[in-house]
Design brief:
432 residues; alpha/beta; Nucleotidyltransferase, domain 5; 6-stranded mixed beta sheet; 16 helices; 52% helix
Length: 432
């Protein structure tokens, strides 16, 4: 039961918008809609806010920022300045593709976010994870003892399965998960998963690069062999769930010592998002069109920026798609995927933007929940790894350009992989 709104005192204002938002996951002849070339597996949302005491100064600076770039981009008064103002081609190789007003706009924005006393939370959630968890959770609840006996943590089990499905996109499994009726047979899914993992184990054992992957698959097969799975028909909900977004936000404001009833939250018009937020009893909840609120557009700019770079990083690092277990064996897994060298061919201004964003990340790291997602953390760890490698790995631009771009490509990829392995080890220590 929410408090009477007349009794609350608003002390903080937050604004929310999202990018790469698919309201429903669907299956087409070409595959899942979330796997379309123009789509991303990652749902990205951003909460941007400040205290009532800081409101006037921050809003004044935001208005100056917007006016400057609306003039530079030649936008009329009735046109919004937002993330999509910048064409997607400016993100092809991350910040190395940004130039002109697009580059300076994000420099000014991140400098403002660093200097001013603002709160920022970036939500990164995998749509593949959302699908997988719906049928995995039932199995796990029925087989808790199996995980304890195998010293194989439940989060690790989920992570490996989601990661494998995310990277290879096996149609046999995905077509079972996303179908017209919305019901999934546990026995059919189990059979298809074991078939895929057995084929994958045979292939990954052949390559030095994938030996650790082979060990993980072997562990998964051992666990699957012990799982007791009575035949069940599980209903899968393909409509996107927004509840996790606000669970994450609640954790974020809790660490910041902010009470929900002292929060005013304004979101871009989206009925499903609003309905999920309404259950949380914030002091004041409003939905507005983004063209009517600059603060919502700032949230959009942040989510759009991170979302587009995550999308491009995925295209750089993803494994080849497969059509069936036979095509799995036709792919070459001997060479590690690297971020292409074009990402590291930076001007001094582009390099300085990486530095600014790394300072922003360090500032936000005071709150553990500043980057919030599920058990599948590859997207967030990849973009953070890229930014910190360039932004903190070198004293200055001169030192940065003393390294060849090819070596940067290898070093940065290794840096990201090292971060993923470290996070995986932490995951193994988790019970749930």
């Amino acid at each position: 039961m929410c408090l009477n709104k007349l009794t609350v005192k608003i002390m903080y204002e937050f604004f929310y918008d999202e990018s790469f938002h698919d309201r429903k996951i669907s299956n087409k002849l070409s595959g899942l809609n979330i796997h379309d070339e123009s789509k991303s597996d990652s749902y990205i949302g951003t909460f941007f806010g400040y205290s009532a005491q800081s409101k006037n100064e921050i809003e004044k600076l935001l208005n100056v920022f917007e006016l400057k770039y609306k003039n530079l981009f030649g936008l009329s008064n009735n046109k919004e300045l937002k993330g999509t103002t910048i064409n997607t081609r400016f993100y092809r190789h991350g910040i190395a593709s940004l130039s002109g007003y697009a580059l300076s706009m994000y420099q000014d924005l991140f400098k403002l976010l660093i200097i001013q006393p603002v709160f920022v939370q970036v939500v990164i959630q995998s749509k593949t994870e959302y699908l997988v968890e719906q049928f995995l959770d039932g199995w796990i609840k029925d087989n808790i003892n199996v995980f304890f006996q195998n010293e194989f943590s439940i989060p690790t089990f989920k992570y490996i399965f989601i990661k494998y499905l995310f990277h290879h996109r096996f149609p046999g499994i995905l077509n079972e998960l996303v179908n017209e009726k919305g019901f999934v047979s546990t026995s059919v899914i189990k059979m298809k998963i074991e078939e895929v993992f057995k084929s994958s184990l045979e292939i990954t054992m052949k390559y030095e690069r994938t030996k650790e992957q082979a060990m993980a698959i072997q562990n998964m097969l051992q666990v699957f062999g012990k799982l007791v799975m009575p035949e069940r028909i599980i209903r899968i909900d393909y409509k996107w769930s927004y509840s996790q977004v606000f669970k994450g936000f609640n954790k974020f404001i809790n660490v910041a010592n902010i009470e929900k009833e002292n929060v005013s939250l304004t979101i871009d018009v989206e009925e499903n998002t609003y309905a999920a937020a309404e259950k949380e009893c914030y002091g004041l909840l409003t939905q507005v069109r983004s063209d009517d609120d600059l603060r919502v557009r700032i949230s959009d700019m942040i989510s759009n920026f991170f979302g587009r770079i995550i999308y491009r990083l995925h295209l750089e690092l993803k494994e080849p798609n497969v059509t069936d277990t036979n095509s799995l064996g036709l792919n070459d897994y001997s060479k590690r995927r690297h971020i292409s060298k074009e990402w590291f061919q930076l001007t001094e201004q582009q390099y300085e933007l990486y530095r600014d964003i790394s300072r922003f990340l360090r500032k936000t790291s005071n709150n553990y929940w500043s980057f919030y997602g599920g058990v599948f953390f590859d997207s967030s760890m990849s973009i953070i790894g890229l930014i910190l490698y360039i932004g903190e790995g070198y004293k200055n631009y001169s030192e940065y350009i003393s390294i060849s771009i090819l070596e940067h490509s290898e070093r940065c990829t290794n840096h990201i992989l090292s971060g993923l392995y470290n996070q995986m080890e932490k995951l193994q220590l988790s019970i749930f």
